[in-house]
Amino acid sequence: MKKNIIFFLAIFGFSICSYGQDPHFTQYYANPVYLNPALAGGEYCPRIITNYRNQWPMLAGSFETYSFSFDLTLEPIHGGIGLSVIHDDAGNGVIKSTSVNLIYSYHTKIARKIDLLTGFQVGSNQRSLNPDLWFGDQIDPIAGFVYPSQDDILNSGIISKNYLDISIGTLISSNSFFLGLVAHHITEPEDAFLINGNLSMKKTVHGGAVIKINEAITSTTGLFSGSTYLIPNFLFKQQAETEQLNLGATITNNIVSGGLGYRRSFANSDAMFFVIGFQKEAIKIGYSYDFTISSLSNSTGGAHEISLRIQLPCIPKKIILNPIKCPKF
Fold this sequence. Notes:
By secondary structure, the chain is mainly beta. 7% of the residues lie in helices and 52% in strands.
């Protein structure tokens, strides 16, 4: 029953009036176009990326987020294009949201070894609330919600909201550092279910450094055959009255990667997390786990996240540009 109450309180905060926050990913650099639309075409060759996150699996209804993206660079338009689809399910269908976004990123050089990317994103969004699953007029202390609601609105069936959304982002990147600025939901569209309420703008600053630890080993086989890099990074974002700070570091080469990180708000700590990744030719897989260290730590079960990147052959086959130096995990 305690788990049901905790979950209901979390869901209720997103239901009648929406001032909520976007889903977040621990592997934010493994979901680049969701992090920053400027990163569309960041590998130049076409790539497919999928992500899955299961947050708080020990609660009565967990928060699951699915992501799919495809992007590539087209030299005639001097930049990259992309498609991003995000689906979020809170509470096994209580609140669902789906976002389909088209992205264009303009690529230019501001110095011989420094790239400037500017991304524009337009999306179509749908949110739905199914009040039959969790809302009642009375709560039984053992069975939970067992009495039907007498509210005519909540008895009318699934409530949905559709809206358009616009986001912009920019990124400065070189072989040794990267720094990005993003503004999601710049028009602050109305997304509340029953009364007036707007989706607040999400402002993000992210960046880091790329530090070479050692040169590539002569052998082309083995886990440590490539050059090894240390990539300390940060991410700060604010949406409405909520803020989040991520601090982390990753060690990576062309086959394996691993990292640790810490996430908190201004008011309290949220989680510690670790990330591991493995790459074989065109496929890269990542896994991360969040250890919740807030007051909910004994009740939530943390969060699991899996990412998959498939690098497709270049179109055309001969391409003279280099990938943007930005960490994947």
